[in-house]
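Before relying on records like the one below, remember that each one covers exactly one chain. Contacts with other chains, cofactors or solvent are not represented anywhere in the record.
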Amino acid sequence: MPKSIISEGKTTTEAISNGLKKLNVSKDRVDIKIIEEHEKRSFFSILAPRVVKVELTLKEDKNTSRSHEMHREREVKITKEELEECKTKLENFLKDFINQIGGLEYKISIEPDSGFIKVDIEGENSRALIGYRGEVLNSLQVILSSIANKHSKDRAKVILNISNYKEKREKSLEELADKISKTVLKTGKPITLEPMMAYERKIIHNRLQSNNRVVTYSVGEEPYRKVVIAKK
Protein backbone atom coordinates (compact mmCIF):
# COMPACT_ATOMS: atom_id res chain seq x y z
CA MET A 1 0.00 0.00 0.00
CA PRO A 2 1.41 3.44 -0.93
CA LYS A 3 2.86 5.47 1.95
CA SER A 4 0.82 8.53 2.99
CA ILE A 5 1.43 11.35 5.46
CA ILE A 6 -0.57 14.33 6.71
CA SER A 7 1.26 17.66 6.52
CA GLU A 8 0.30 21.10 7.83
CA GLY A 9 1.17 24.68 6.99
CA LYS A 10 -0.14 28.24 7.04
CA THR A 11 -0.78 27.98 3.28
CA THR A 12 -1.42 25.10 0.91
CA THR A 13 1.99 25.60 -0.69
CA GLU A 14 3.71 25.56 2.70
CA ALA A 15 1.84 22.41 3.77
CA ILE A 16 2.87 20.63 0.56
CA SER A 17 6.47 21.79 0.92
CA ASN A 18 6.65 20.55 4.53
CA GLY A 19 5.28 17.17 3.46
CA LEU A 20 7.75 16.82 0.61
CA LYS A 21 10.61 17.50 3.03
CA LYS A 22 9.34 14.77 5.38
CA LEU A 23 9.11 12.26 2.54
CA ASN A 24 12.33 13.55 0.98
CA VAL A 25 10.86 13.42 -2.53
CA SER A 26 9.98 15.85 -5.33
CA LYS A 27 6.39 16.95 -6.07
CA ASP A 28 6.06 14.72 -9.12
CA ARG A 29 6.52 11.64 -6.88
CA VAL A 30 3.34 12.21 -4.84
CA ASP A 31 -0.42 12.58 -5.18
CA ILE A 32 -1.78 15.56 -3.24
CA LYS A 33 -5.18 15.85 -1.55
CA ILE A 34 -6.42 18.85 0.44
CA ILE A 35 -7.88 17.56 3.72
CA GLU A 36 -8.59 20.74 5.64
CA GLU A 37 -8.38 24.39 4.65
CA HIS A 38 -9.77 26.94 7.09
CA GLU A 39 -10.97 29.74 4.83
CA LYS A 40 -14.11 30.78 6.78
CA ARG A 41 -13.26 31.90 10.29
CA SER A 42 -15.52 33.03 13.12
CA PHE A 43 -15.03 36.14 15.24
CA PHE A 44 -13.76 34.02 18.16
CA SER A 45 -11.19 32.16 16.02
CA ILE A 46 -9.87 35.17 14.15
CA LEU A 47 -6.71 35.25 16.28
CA ALA A 48 -6.05 31.53 15.89
CA PRO A 49 -3.32 30.59 13.41
CA ARG A 50 -4.57 29.49 9.98
CA VAL A 51 -3.88 25.81 9.34
CA VAL A 52 -4.02 23.95 6.04
CA LYS A 53 -3.78 20.15 6.07
CA VAL A 54 -2.84 18.07 3.02
CA GLU A 55 -2.36 14.38 2.45
CA LEU A 56 0.66 13.33 0.40
CA THR A 57 0.70 9.81 -1.00
CA LEU A 58 3.78 8.36 -2.68
CA LYS A 59 3.08 7.29 -6.23
CA GLU A 60 3.77 3.72 -7.21
CA ASP A 61 7.26 3.15 -8.53
CA LYS A 62 7.31 3.35 -12.33
CA ASN A 63 9.03 0.00 -12.69
CA THR A 64 6.46 -1.64 -10.41
CA SER A 65 3.63 0.11 -12.21
CA ARG A 66 5.00 -0.96 -15.58
CA SER A 67 5.23 -4.57 -14.44
CA HIS A 68 1.63 -4.40 -13.20
CA GLU A 69 0.52 -2.99 -16.55
CA MET A 70 2.38 -5.73 -18.40
CA HIS A 71 0.76 -8.29 -16.11
CA ARG A 72 -2.69 -6.87 -16.85
CA GLU A 73 -1.94 -6.89 -20.57
CA ARG A 74 -1.05 -10.57 -20.34
CA GLU A 75 -4.26 -11.26 -18.41
CA VAL A 76 -6.51 -9.18 -20.69
CA LYS A 77 -5.16 -9.91 -24.13
CA ILE A 78 -7.70 -9.14 -26.86
CA THR A 79 -7.46 -11.34 -29.93
CA LYS A 80 -7.78 -9.96 -33.45
CA GLU A 81 -11.02 -11.86 -33.86
CA GLU A 82 -12.48 -10.26 -30.72
CA LEU A 83 -11.37 -6.80 -31.87
CA GLU A 84 -13.03 -7.34 -35.26
CA GLU A 85 -16.20 -8.44 -33.48
CA CYS A 86 -16.12 -5.27 -31.35
CA LYS A 87 -15.57 -3.21 -34.49
CA THR A 88 -18.65 -4.75 -36.13
CA LYS A 89 -20.77 -3.94 -33.07
CA LEU A 90 -19.64 -0.31 -33.17
CA GLU A 91 -20.20 0.02 -36.92
CA ASN A 92 -23.77 -1.26 -36.61
CA PHE A 93 -24.55 0.99 -33.67
CA LEU A 94 -23.02 4.14 -35.17
CA LYS A 95 -24.79 3.54 -38.49
CA ASP A 96 -28.17 3.44 -36.73
CA PHE A 97 -27.19 6.31 -34.44
CA ILE A 98 -26.25 8.62 -37.29
CA ASN A 99 -29.45 7.70 -39.18
CA GLN A 100 -31.48 8.60 -36.09
CA ILE A 101 -29.88 12.06 -35.98
CA GLY A 102 -31.05 12.68 -39.55
CA GLY A 103 -30.00 15.34 -42.03
CA LEU A 104 -26.33 15.19 -41.08
CA GLU A 105 -23.45 13.53 -42.88
CA TYR A 106 -20.53 12.06 -40.98
CA LYS A 107 -17.49 10.08 -41.98
CA ILE A 108 -16.71 7.32 -39.50
CA SER A 109 -13.41 5.47 -39.15
CA ILE A 110 -13.00 2.50 -36.78
CA GLU A 111 -9.53 0.97 -36.43
CA PRO A 112 -8.66 -1.83 -33.97
CA ASP A 113 -5.08 -1.47 -32.71
CA SER A 114 -3.34 -3.61 -30.05
CA GLY A 115 -6.22 -3.95 -27.60
CA PHE A 116 -7.60 -0.50 -28.45
CA ILE A 117 -10.34 0.53 -30.83
CA LYS A 118 -9.87 4.02 -32.26
CA VAL A 119 -13.07 5.66 -33.46
CA ASP A 120 -12.81 8.90 -35.46
CA ILE A 121 -15.87 10.85 -36.55
CA GLU A 122 -15.70 13.75 -38.99
CA GLY A 123 -18.66 15.92 -40.00
CA GLU A 124 -19.75 19.45 -40.81
CA ASN A 125 -21.87 19.82 -37.67
CA SER A 126 -19.74 17.71 -35.36
CA ARG A 127 -20.10 20.23 -32.52
CA ALA A 128 -23.44 18.60 -31.68
CA LEU A 129 -21.59 15.34 -30.96
CA ILE A 130 -18.90 17.08 -28.89
CA GLY A 131 -21.00 19.22 -26.58
CA TYR A 132 -19.81 21.76 -24.03
CA ARG A 133 -16.20 21.02 -23.13
CA GLY A 134 -16.54 17.54 -24.66
CA GLU A 135 -19.35 16.36 -22.36
CA VAL A 136 -21.33 14.68 -25.16
CA LEU A 137 -18.16 13.17 -26.66
CA ASN A 138 -17.14 11.65 -23.31
CA SER A 139 -20.62 10.25 -22.72
CA LEU A 140 -20.71 8.78 -26.22
CA GLN A 141 -17.30 7.18 -25.63
CA VAL A 142 -18.66 5.43 -22.51
CA ILE A 143 -21.65 4.14 -24.52
CA LEU A 144 -19.41 2.89 -27.33
CA SER A 145 -17.20 1.10 -24.82
CA SER A 146 -20.21 -0.67 -23.30
CA ILE A 147 -21.48 -1.72 -26.72
CA ALA A 148 -18.08 -2.95 -27.92
CA ASN A 149 -17.59 -5.08 -24.84
CA LYS A 150 -21.12 -6.43 -24.48
CA HIS A 151 -21.03 -10.24 -24.13
CA SER A 152 -17.23 -10.15 -24.54
CA LYS A 153 -14.93 -12.07 -22.21
CA ASP A 154 -12.15 -9.46 -22.41
CA ARG A 155 -12.49 -5.69 -22.54
CA ALA A 156 -11.25 -3.53 -25.39
CA LYS A 157 -10.66 0.14 -24.68
CA VAL A 158 -12.52 2.49 -27.03
CA ILE A 159 -10.93 5.86 -27.78
CA LEU A 160 -13.30 8.30 -29.47
CA ASN A 161 -12.23 11.49 -31.23
CA ILE A 162 -14.52 13.84 -33.13
CA SER A 163 -13.14 16.33 -35.66
CA ASN A 164 -9.76 16.31 -33.83
CA TYR A 165 -11.44 17.80 -30.75
CA LYS A 166 -9.01 16.22 -28.28
CA GLU A 167 -5.96 17.66 -30.04
CA LYS A 168 -7.57 21.11 -30.11
CA ARG A 169 -8.63 20.83 -26.47
CA GLU A 170 -5.12 19.78 -25.41
CA LYS A 171 -3.61 22.81 -27.14
CA SER A 172 -6.12 25.21 -25.52
CA LEU A 173 -5.50 23.70 -22.06
CA GLU A 174 -1.73 24.04 -22.46
CA GLU A 175 -2.19 27.68 -23.44
CA LEU A 176 -4.48 28.17 -20.43
CA ALA A 177 -1.89 26.60 -18.11
CA ASP A 178 0.82 28.95 -19.39
CA LYS A 179 -1.44 32.00 -19.04
CA ILE A 180 -2.66 31.17 -15.52
CA SER A 181 0.86 30.32 -14.28
CA LYS A 182 2.04 33.78 -15.36
CA THR A 183 -0.84 35.40 -13.47
CA VAL A 184 -0.06 33.34 -10.36
CA LEU A 185 3.60 34.39 -10.46
CA LYS A 186 2.58 38.01 -10.95
CA THR A 187 0.02 38.15 -8.12
CA GLY A 188 1.47 35.49 -5.83
CA LYS A 189 -2.04 34.10 -5.29
CA PRO A 190 -3.13 30.54 -6.20
CA ILE A 191 -5.82 30.13 -8.86
CA THR A 192 -8.36 27.30 -8.95
CA LEU A 193 -9.52 26.25 -12.40
CA GLU A 194 -13.00 25.01 -13.26
CA PRO A 195 -13.85 21.29 -12.84
CA MET A 196 -12.21 19.10 -15.49
CA MET A 197 -12.08 15.51 -16.64
CA ALA A 198 -9.14 13.46 -15.34
CA TYR A 199 -7.32 13.47 -18.69
CA GLU A 200 -7.73 17.27 -18.91
CA ARG A 201 -6.29 17.78 -15.43
CA LYS A 202 -3.37 15.60 -16.42
CA ILE A 203 -2.66 17.90 -19.39
CA ILE A 204 -2.42 20.89 -17.00
CA HIS A 205 -0.16 19.01 -14.57
CA ASN A 206 2.13 17.78 -17.35
CA ARG A 207 2.37 21.21 -18.95
CA LEU A 208 3.59 22.87 -15.74
CA GLN A 209 5.60 19.95 -14.37
CA SER A 210 8.88 21.43 -15.61
CA ASN A 211 8.05 24.90 -14.27
CA ASN A 212 10.04 25.13 -11.03
CA ARG A 213 8.28 28.33 -9.96
CA VAL A 214 4.75 26.97 -9.63
CA VAL A 215 3.07 23.89 -8.15
CA THR A 216 -0.14 22.17 -9.33
CA TYR A 217 -2.45 19.89 -7.39
CA SER A 218 -6.07 18.74 -7.55
CA VAL A 219 -8.87 19.38 -5.04
CA GLY A 220 -12.46 18.20 -4.67
CA GLU A 221 -14.24 15.02 -5.61
CA GLU A 222 -15.30 13.73 -9.02
CA PRO A 223 -16.96 14.95 -11.15
CA TYR A 224 -16.15 18.39 -9.72
CA ARG A 225 -12.42 17.87 -9.16
CA LYS A 226 -10.35 20.95 -10.02
CA VAL A 227 -6.72 21.87 -10.62
CA VAL A 228 -5.07 24.51 -8.44
CA ILE A 229 -2.02 26.40 -9.69
CA ALA A 230 0.03 28.06 -6.94
CA LYS A 231 3.35 29.79 -6.57
CA LYS A 232 6.12 27.70 -5.00
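Residues 77-163 form a domain with the GMP Synthetase; Chain A, domain 3 fold (CATH 3.30.300.20).
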